[in-house]
Write a structure and sequence with these properties.
Blueprint lengths: L5 E5 L2 H4 L18 H11 L1 H7 L3 E5 L3 H13 L3 E5 L24 H12 L5 E4 L5 H5 L3 E4 L8 H9 L3 E8 L2 E7 L4 E3 L9 E7 L5 E5 L13 E5 L13 E5 L4 E4 L14 E4 L3 E5 L3 H4 L15 H17 L11 H11 L8 H10 L5 H20 L8 E5 L25 H7 L1 H8 L2 E5 L3 H13 L8 E5 L24 H12 L5 E4 L13 H5 L3 E4 L4 H14 L3 E7 L2 E7 L20 H6 L4 H28 L11 H14 L5 H26 L30 H17 L11 H6 L17 H6 L7 H14 L25 H15 L7 H8 L7 H20 L9 E5 L4 E5 L7 E3 L2 E3 L5 E3 L7 H12 L2 E7 L2 E5 L4 H8 L3 H9 L9 E9 L5 E2 L4 E4 L4
Parallel strand pairs: 2-3, 2-5, 3-4, 5-6, 17-18, 17-20, 18-19, 20-21, 27-32
Antiparallel strand pairs: 1-15, 6-7, 7-16, 8-15, 9-10, 9-14, 10-13, 11-12, 11-14, 12-13, 21-22, 22-23, 23-24, 25-26, 28-29, 28-30, 30-31, 30-32
Amino acid sequence: MGCAASVQIINKTEQSKQDTMSQSQSSDKNSEMDENLYSRQMYVLGVDAMKRMQQSNVLIVGLGGLGVEIAKNVILTGVKSVTIHDDKQVSFADLSSQFYLSEKDVGKNRAEVSVTQLKELNSYVPVKTLSGELTDDILTSHNVVVFTDHHIASLAEKNEVCRRNGVKFIAAESRGVFGSLFCDFGVGFEVYDADGETPIQNIVTNITNDNPAVVSVHDEKAIHGYYDGDYVTFDSIEGMTEINQAGPLKVKSTGKHTFTVDIDATKFGTYHGSGYVKQSKQVQKIDYLPLSESIKNPTIIDTDFAKFGRPQLLHAAFQALNDFQKSNNNQLPASYDRKDADRLVELTKSYAEEVDERVVRYLSYTARGNLSPMAAFVGGVAAQEVQKATSGKFTPLNQWMHFDSLESLPSDESQLPSPQDAQPQGTRYDGQIAVFGSAYQQLLMNQKVFIVGAGALGCEYIKSFAMMGIGCGPQGKVFITDMDNIEISNLNRQFLFRKKHVGKLKSTVAAEVAKEMNHSLNVIALQDKVAPQTEDVFDDDFWENLNLITNALDNVQARLYVDQRCVYYRKPLLEAGTLGTKGNTQVVIPFLTESYGSTRDPPEKEIPICTLKNFPNAIEHTIQWSRDLFEGMFNKAPSDVNTYLTKADFVQEMDQQKRTILEGIYENLVSSKPVNFEECVVWARLKFEQLYNNQILQLLYNFPLDMTTSSGTKFWGGPKRAPTALTFDGNDQAHLDFVISAAHLRANLYNIQAPTADYDYKKVLNNITVPEFTPKSGVKIETEEKKKEGDSAPADNDDDDQVVNELLASIPKPSELSNWRLNVIEFEKDDDTNHHIDFVTAASNMRARNYKIPEANKHTTKGIAGKIIPAMVTTTALVTGLASFEIYKLLYKFDNVELYKNAFVNIALPFVTFGEPGVPAKSKYLDKEWSLWDRFEINKGKDITLKELKESFEKEHNLEISMMSAGTAVIYSFFGNKKKIAERMAMPVSEAVKDVTKTEYLPKQKYISFEICCNDQEGEDADVPYLRYQFKNF
């Protein structure tokens, strides 16, 4: 409804290229930015957006739970400065969400109490506090102003002051299970990259000399991916070279792999081949309405399509709430006071024609509430809007968001807390008691929860649990486990950690810091991986005593294992994940929903080996090739040498790669074994020649440029880009970078001291004699076409045997080098001094130069080679906030799946949507339905015989067992050896299983799971769940 902020696209070629990492040509050595600290965020925002953020001063007004969430996130993202203005004193109601306050601070100024800990979040961001009158001068001395603890409807005058002076304005509210957000970035706000997605690139196969020119791209993708109105640029086009300089050109799609560009190409050269076309992000200018206008005619983001019309209703209700407080001695409606609720309903009717009175009453009932999950969600979104306002990266909110988690409370008003139960108790949970009541608070406090992972998600979860009081009662506990130590790169988003914690265990520090936030938190830090190998640690009793598990992992396999444990022990699971600005949550509830593992993402597409080895066409290919090169030369090769020297039968155990392995050992022990750094430089120079000249010449010898395939088409074309051999140039810094980094890594292998910074590499290089290379016939190079035609020839084994024997005769015997070993280098992406990323970048760019592929800077290469997962603290905060709302519902034991919410967010757009969890798939035997949550249970109070188990089961379930297996071992089958089966049937079940599997039980194990095959009374196969048998600890 209403008028959206107007948007126009402007063609600013330079600005349109700024924020996409793959286009960014920013210097890798940025003296103003700590790339180790900000690395994961930089892969979301890009260097230029980060630089713009670092020029922005941010004012946050109000430091309650919502304000401190916003402040925490904004400080961690790295703006120029943050100022906190707050005149309020700490109250008990603040403590349920403001994590830098405690009971001892009640009565003190909130900002003054919190500022020390806020400063510790990021040493690069100065933080100061203000109190007293909030003057226009204070507002206009900042680039962005964020209001919290105020009714948005009351801020029109402050908005006007900011708007007149070019100050970006954001206002947010948190009221119980309701939240609201408004943004006004003024007139002509520039967005440099609307979505943050990597620009779409295609391989060009043809461009016509028409007006407009028609472009055809290779069909390796289903569609080219461009929409009408998109802009593109061209690179490395041969023949029609003029189009490479044409700048962004507007697209009109004409087919799945064709489109026109708005340029007259009739006088251009003729397209000869090669080249890329790439999407070019254009700057958008957006005009925002002032609050005074927008509040009357709002544009509101829809988040939950199951709540049609809800945002518009809440827009009216929030204005009515402002009116209520102004006319009620500045007091919000009392918790669960029906008279106050009726009055708010009437006030709301003056702003909306149709009013769902139940929704408005719930706003009235909970308006005094102060919930940590709401602060986390709204605070995460608001902080992301600050990032957009300061950087121009991503599309800002247009202009309102109203959110509720009404389903966290019973829909039957008779089941809600009484006004007395929701009264303040003088405890740190008063803000939550105002919503859920004191009796419910006791339930929360006595929960036993397991947080798997203490990274970014884990830190946010344990903070939220400390604020909510989970695990803080006499029977409550929070377990948190993580094997990892804290690194510098963690500090930008794992907000519990500081520089002084680097090197310490994540789980231990997270537990200690969370306990400082709430001294009643009963937290136990563990350092064990949750995996099959640790089932003696996380045993049956451990899992059975839990009430809830939260996954805070970045590993799919680990998530799947935890999910399987939750299904087995029938425990609810909160699952969440983030990727840059994207996030999702999933709630898994026994018998009510499907599990995390019920649906799988498709596997990542792998790069074909022949593409990597011989036919790259994208920078990702050359980076992966160089990463493999690093692993082969500096990890596998020295490992092979050390194994040869230490393992007597190593040579005999070699597989078909014996020749290749021995050639590597020969190179490292004989032909190229260096004794000083100069010889490492020589090796690096010769390696350059081998990789970027000789191998390319051999490839072109095998497949000449004019070669055609059996079908008559050109061999070189489309994704097969014809390479060019490189001639080494000591004056080319990229060539030198390869030699320098490779020489240092080579020296590291042999413990050779690296030289000082003034070492004269060029002098050494000028004296190196490089042998001439002549391509050889008979060299086999694999191609996709040859695979299809089946004409790849087998290796000449006789020649191989001869070469192997010669190599073995030339390599020193292990006894001759008994105390000598090579260093094995493990790839480490986050150490800028170790030459690892330097080498991979240089090696990749040289390969890219061979194939005329646009090169990548060190930052981009590090992200791809290191498989760095982009991360933002804002996404993490809001995702854990959304997941934490599900805990309230779980404690109420709601059995209607529609009340639970899975969330999907992309705050770059911004996009937030909710859906109900999927229900579990059903199977059936006889007349009984079952799902993954069901099983047969047998517990006879003792370890019965296998015969007794079978007979008992068959009698109870009217089924006949035809086969039983434990893991991969068959314990019983109707077709098995009769004598052995008879012997086994007389044994106790646990002994029979141990006899077959030849394994011992874990010390605390009390269950055995059997997969069973059954027949019904008609002899038909019955599809049945598994059987769980208890054999001890009855």
